[in-house]
Amino acid sequence: MKRNACALLLVFSGALLGCDEQQYVSPDTVALIVTDDSTNMQRVNRCLFIPVLLGGQVVFRYEVDAQLKALLVITRDDATVSFEPEEAAEPFSVDTDELTEMQQHQADAPPSGYTVELSAGCTPDDDDFR
Question: Which domains does the chain have, with CATH numbers?
Answer without folding.
Answer: 29-125 (2.60.320)
